[in-house]
Write a structure and sequence with these properties.
The chain is an alpha+beta fold. The protein has two domains: about 40 residues, no CATH class; about 55 residues, no CATH class. It is built from five helices and seven strands; from the N terminus they run ββββαααββαβα. The longest helix has 14 residues. It starts with a strand and ends in a 13-residue tail after the last helix. The relative contact order is 0.11.
């Protein structure tokens, strides 16, 4: 028997799904569906939610250029064609991304990688993998 963290009911173990095939979930199967229901605000504001989703989908699209960017707090220079996603990744890795700026924009990824290598030769941190195509 186990107590569900959502409904606080004591239920048999077979009412809980397994995590990684060995641990019981902290909420029962009947509450699991409720946990992932669309929040009331989203239901009541479908137009606002659609507008928000469209805006953020556009922000996350890959750009038509490859950027060489700098994260000044870490003296880090990198290359990307989607700065928003790249900044998000750096943030999850524990870096302070405030002040991040684009140093150069190139149509060719190879030229961007060459410029990045120049910055690394000057002592900036970062990884230059010499990947010429994506």
């Amino acid at each position: 028997m186990k107590v569900c963290k959502i409904c606080n009911e004591n239920k048999p173990d077979n009412q809980f799904s397994l995590i990684q095939k060995k641990y019981l979930n902290s909420w029962c199967m009947s509450c699991n569906g409720k946990k992932y229901d669309i929040p009331a605000w989203q239901k009541a504001n479908k137009e606002k939610q659609a507008s928000y989703n469209k805006k953020h989908r556009q922000l996350r699209q890959i750009t038509d250029y490859t950027a060489v960017y700098l994260i000044p707090e870490h003296n880090y220079v990198g290359v990307t064609n989607n700065l928003i996603n790249r900044k998000s990744w750096h943030k999850t890795m524990g870096k302070d991304i405030s002040g991040t700026k684009i140093l150069h924009k190139f149509k060719s990824r190879a030229k961007a990688l060459a410029k990045e290598a120049e910055y690394h030769a000057m002592g900036y941190a970062g990884a230059n993998l010499h990947i010429s195509s994506f």
